[in-house]
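Just scan my protein:

——
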Amino acid sequence: MPVSIRFVGSGDSFGSGGRFQTCILVDGGGMRFTIDFGTSSLIALKQQGIDHNSIDAVLLTHLHGDHCGGVPFLLVDAMLGARRSRPLTIAGPRDLRSRMGAIAGALFPGSEVMVPKFPLDYVEMEVGERTVIGNLRVTPYAAKHTWQTNPTCLRVEVGDKVIAYTGDGEWTDAMAQMGRGADLVIAECYYYAKPIRWHLNYPAIVEHLRDFGAKRVILTHMSEEMLQHTTTIPEECAHDGMVVEL
C-alpha cells in the first residue's frame, strides 16, 4: 500500500532559511493526517494548494508552538471560514485538551464559546501504548525535551508501512526503539556542530544512525548553521514541499 509524505513545513521555531514550522502531511491507509502542526501551517498548506478540510487527524509530538500552535487557527477557520463538516481527530500527549484550550484562549480570546458543527475528538495518548486512530496505529515514546511540553516521539503504522518521527529531543534508548525497523525515520537535526540541550545535532545523528535500524532517514528542523551544510553531507535533508513516496 503506497504512502506519501509531504514536508509542508520543515523549519525550526524561528523561520531559519525562510522555512515554515513543522508540519508533515501523510496520505496512506485511507487517511490524510499531519504529524505536528506548527503555527505557520495554515499558510504553508495554502501556499502548497492543500485544503485543510481534507485532513482527518493531527498527531502532535509535544506542546511547543512551532509544533502545535497552528491548531487553534485550523479550528477557528474550520468553524468560521472553511465551514468544515468532515470529522477531525487531534491526538497528542497528556493534558492535550486543556493545554490546547489554553493556547486557543490566548490566541483567540472568546473562542471558547464557539461550538464546531463537525465531529471533533481529542485523544490523549499514553507513552508506550499503541493507540488506534482511524486506520492508524500510533505509539508515543518518551522524549528528552522541555518537560513542560509533555514531549514524545511517535511511531506511526500506516497500513504496512512505519513512519517514525523524533519530534524534538536529545538521543535516548527510547528514540532508538521508536525508529527500529521503520520504513522512514524523520529526525530533527537542529545544529551541525554546536551541542544544544534537549535537541539532536548532526554528530548525534551520525553516532546513532545505525541504532535507528531504519530503511530511510530524512533530517529536518534545521537551524541556519545546519542549513549551510545540507548539500555537503550524505544524509537526506528535508525542504518545504518535499514529497517522499514509500
The first helix runs from residue 41 to 47. The mean pLDDT is 97. The chain has one domain: 4-245.
